[in-house]
Design a protein that fits this description.
By secondary structure, the chain is of the alpha/beta class. Helix content is 38%, strand content 14%. It is built from 16 helices and 13 strands. Belongs to the amidase family.
Length: 471
Amino acid sequence: MSEIVMLSASQLVAGFWQRSLSPVEVMCAVLDRVTKLDPVVNAFCGLDEEGAMSAAGEAERRWRRAEPCGPLDGVPVSVKDLVAVAGLPTRQGSWTASPDSENADAPAVARLRRAGAIPFGKTTTSEFGNKIVTDCPLTGVTRNPWDTRLSPGGSSGGSAVAVALGMGPLSLATDGGGSIRIPACWSGVVGFKPTFALVPAGSAASWTALSTLGPITRTVRDAALMLDAMTCGNNDGPPRVGSPSGYSAALDDGVAGLRIAWCPAPDSVSVAPDIAECVQRAADTFEAIGATVIQADIAPIADYYGNGRIHSVQWSVFFAQRVRHMEVADRTLLDPDLTALSDAGTRIDTATFVDALLARHALGASMETFFERYDLLLTPTFHCGPPPVPGLPGHLRNAPLLTAWCNQAGLPAISVPCGLARDLPTGLQIVGRRGSDALVLRAARAYELARGDFPAPGPELQLPGDTEIAP
């Protein structure tokens, strides 16, 4: 059973073709895994077991006829609870959100479903995705699969934990400042933030004008398969079955001849030595597989730093605006961290907010110029390891400096596991110019092949002491 749940989506599909696996068998294994492990890590806040098993049965009948409906037919996918899935509520980690089930899928979910993927559950998030750990009053604390005393990161922590532990090979998440890449980094999986708005978000999921939807997976190929499905136009039908297309087409073309900038630690960021060592080895790997790697001081990013103020200003103002529209009684139900963020936003004047927007535009223009000289940029994904649960330490309350600037510039960026620092995963971040999503994925795949298989966390999980998950 454990072997099945740790297979990638592409391996599952190959098994369906060969009839060595069935979608019903796979979905049963995934749901059993959730039953066994989720009480410890709290990755899920909702399941549709009946709907998932029914959809798996339909997929199995199609595979028996050798007529899959799409390239992900029968593959389980979880969805972060900021994104609508028909038949399940979208609680957004908040007591203030409606408990009623959704009548329709969000656009990206609809496209995954059209490609054959089976949305089977909602994953935990911080309230409205407000912070880089995953805890909130509604669903409690989500724990790191490598060490349950620690956070997996956030706000897509549930998605990262689910994928890392074999509770489904694919998860759809969101990233407004690092919320895909940070939990991917700390949980030992792949997390890809596409170019802004490449994946359709729908009005409800893009209210910060910084967040975009993207995949969390165990392999780069699976991330590309998800992106193929989610960027397929409404009138195009699902992507073709059995032959690479879109972002999967050139995935194995390698990095020979690319000019890659390497920034070990931008100004004002102190990277932990053990993490720096892991990421340095990853940068060296790119040179070994044919790229030209040039250590560079990156002026546009350096200009962004002031403890990430241009991001913090916008983030807090957007949350203040959201809270402003709530009923007074609802505001008393909010996570204190979200309330503090909103209060900070109410103190920002119009001139400061506009200055932040102008700085955002300038950063984007500077990075366009930067990528005229380089094809890609490498950095650490995060400068330190995960904090203990629950809560968010004061030194991590500012904008995450190595990831949030990519949201400001709208750039594609991926975190790929690159080693263990103090027995915990850490990540390499690969960033490209706007629209170069295929190149970013190609480079990540080349590194993944050169690195070899990355270990998974052990399935024998225990809560530390007598701590509890639920609030």
